[in-house]
Amino acid sequence: MSRSIREEDFVRSVADALQYISTYHPPDFIRHLAESYRREQSPAARDAMAQILANSKMAAFGRRPMCQDTGSVVAFVKIGMEARLVSSRPLAELVDAAVRLAYTDPENPLRASMIRDPLFDRRNTRDNTPAITHVEMVPGDRIEVKLAAKGGGSENKARFANLGPSASVVDWVVETVETLGAGWCPPGLLGIGVGGNAEKAMLLAKESLLAPIDMTELLARGPASPLEEMRLEIYHKVNALGIGAQGLGGLTTILDVKIATYPCHAASKPVGLIPQCAADRHVGFVLDGSGPAAFTTPDLELWPDIAIDGLAATARRVDLDHLDAAEVAGWKAGETLLLSGRMLTGRDAAHRRLVDMIQRGEPLPVEFKDRAIYYVGPVDAVRDEVVGPAGPTTSTRMDPFTATLLERTGLLVMIGKAERGPAAIDAIRRHGAAYLIAVGGAAYLVSKAIRSARVLAFEDLGMEAIHEFVVEDMPVTVAVDSTGASIHLEGPRRWRAPEIVADGIPLRS
């Protein structure tokens, strides 16, 4: 006899799950990150981990998104062949209805990042639909759903290769990760899919990231199969690169490695690699016809007690309302600053529009001279918030516009996450500017430093509009100083080493 599952139970469960994962890290992620924080020896990386952990705890208590990029929704739905979903609508339409419900929830609105047309007008759908839905028919009378919300920074670093049958997967993964930079917001996970064909390998990599994190246990007991040996080898070799949290240099770049395989053609070895950022958002549930799924709030004692207020004693305080080239020239790569005053915001779409206006000789709607711009697309505010979670976006996407803005507007400071490319660094050096980073994955924490927010220009761009924030003691690190010195080059170089052991656990190969 088939089991009936109501449409409203399916939609409600997916919507509730998406709200849940926007706020709560999986407990296994927190345990592994806390352990890595305890072992970390790099001060900069340790501080970044502390901010990520503190942010996670604040988001859990405040029931607000841990990251401003609340992700594109990926749904893996397994339908038992004896189950009956009581609905006249296609399954993907039901998932989209749930996404719409979750992302426009007035109690906890999530950021809409999906655009309808990827090629031309790239207009935001405003409700984060559509989702990417994968469906499989399986034995049984239940529906199993696994959901992930994947941020753009880490998704942009996904890679694929069709290796030769005798090529080393380990070597390719390690070499590839070294080229990714820090835009995927480490520390995180690596999902690896091997086999099938191009699309199957990538799907395997994505789904592998839903598995529980168990690297601590694997390190303690040792490998029991060739696949586990490969996981350990990749884990050690990637961490030996010294990339570290946020690319600042340190012992831990990844917390775990997941590998899924599938048979493939004898002439091929397709390999997909998908990194997962520090906003590790996923959950699964099963519907059996008894009603919607329920989600249990994690024990808030799980989060370690970490004090991050020590920054005030050692950081340099900066008044953004009185910035000048002499002030910026005194900053050094790796230095911690606390920013107060007015800053502008702007991302890809705003930068493109600004440069187009400059090239047409049109006046700009905002004065940039001797000011700072923050690369951010915040979540909408609720209740007494002045702005929702507002963490940085990947800065290399602004690299093509950097030289023009520095030269033509007098912009002095940029704030984002991860490294800058050689051309952007050269422009920063030539114009005596600076590039600062806030911690990616600490969006709720960053938002608490923002005292007011208003839209100044390009309101039609939604979260990509140009805002003016007034901030107080916003923590940042000087990533590229006015001489062109870059912490993202020097940090990993300093921490790249053949072997380091902490607490008897080998952290490097």
For the structure shown, list the relevant keywords.
fumarase; 16 helices; globular; 509 residues; alpha/beta; 5-stranded mixed β-barrel; 4-stranded mixed sheet
Q: How would you characterize the overall build of this protein?
A:
The chain has helices spanning 7-23, 27-39, 43-62, 91-103, 152-155, 169-179, 198-208, 215-221, 226-239, 311-314, 325-329, 348-359, 399-409, 422-430, 443-447, 487-495, and strands at 3-6, 72-80, 83-86, 132-138, 143-150, 159-163, 188-196, 254-264, 269-276, 282-287, 316-319, 336-345, 372-374, 413-416, 434-437, 450-457, 466-480, 501-502, 505-506. It is an alpha/beta fold. The chain has three domains: 1-150, no CATH class; 152-278, no CATH class; 311-488, Fe-S hydro-lyase, tartrate dehydratase beta-type, catalytic domain (fumarase, Alpha-Beta Barrel). The chain has a five-stranded mixed β-barrel with strand order 12-13-14-15-17. Helix 2 runs antiparallel to helix 3 (43-62). The protein is globular and about 75 Å long. It starts with a strand and ends with a strand. Mean pLDDT is 95; it is low at 500-509.
